[in-house]
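A.,

Following up on our hallway conversation. Structure tokens first:
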């Protein structure tokens, strides 16, 4: 039986996100300094710097999307609002992952040297959310553009005012709700 790994992915991914948000790049030396994990152990665990970065991105996106999709799956009148509120709530509860999603770009984590299996995951990772947004738009009678604005763009813009330097305050939820409702109301008014 092999040794159990003492590497916690969350710790490594958080260090990568913090380094990218503060310094604009991720280096293995910087990760070693932040985590105390040797370069050899990082290579053994992730295969390459690119593999590590891709896994960090995939972890953050997947964790957030689970919440977003669960909110939309409720299917009730307030499902869209709950999906919009998933962003600030995620940022408060999963700050390290939120920094990766809100302060960095996918291109910072995905490169031509990214392992093919990770690239395939990244290519399809947003498909479920895109389909869920489309379905919600059809079911709610709102345009896809209004749903994207109210559930994705407004919440993301709101949390970016705070991250990575500050925690996202609870009152941001009120602004996200107002933005969501404004997008839905503007969309309804445009079609009347």
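Then the amino acids I'd put at each of the 192 positions:
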């Amino acid at each position: 039986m092999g040794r159990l790994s003492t590497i916690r992915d969350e710790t490594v991914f958080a260090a990568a996100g913090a380094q990218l948000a503060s310094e604009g790049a991720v280096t293995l030396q910087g990760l070693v300094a932040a985590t105390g994990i040797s370069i050899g152990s990082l290579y053994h665990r992730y295969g390459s710097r690119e593999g590590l970065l891709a896994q960090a991105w995939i972890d953050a996106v997947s964790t957030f999307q689970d919440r977003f999709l669960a909110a939309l799956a409720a299917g009730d009148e307030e499902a869209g609002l709950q999906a919009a509120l998933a962003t600030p709530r995620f940022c408060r509860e999963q700050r390290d992952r939120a920094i990766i999603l809100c302060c960095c770009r996918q291109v910072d984590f995905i490169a031509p040297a990214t392992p093919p299996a990770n690239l395939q995951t990244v290519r399809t990772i947003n498909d479920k959310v895109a389909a869920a947004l489309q379905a919600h738009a059809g079911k709610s009678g709102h345009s896809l553009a209004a749903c994207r604005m109210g559930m994705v763009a407004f919440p993301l813009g709101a949390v970016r005012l705070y991250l990575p330097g500050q925690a996202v305050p609870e009152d941001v939820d009120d602004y996200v709700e107002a933005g969501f409702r404004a997008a839905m109301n503007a969309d309804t008014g445009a079609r009347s």
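The chain has a mean pLDDT of 90. Curious whether your intuition agrees with the design.

B.
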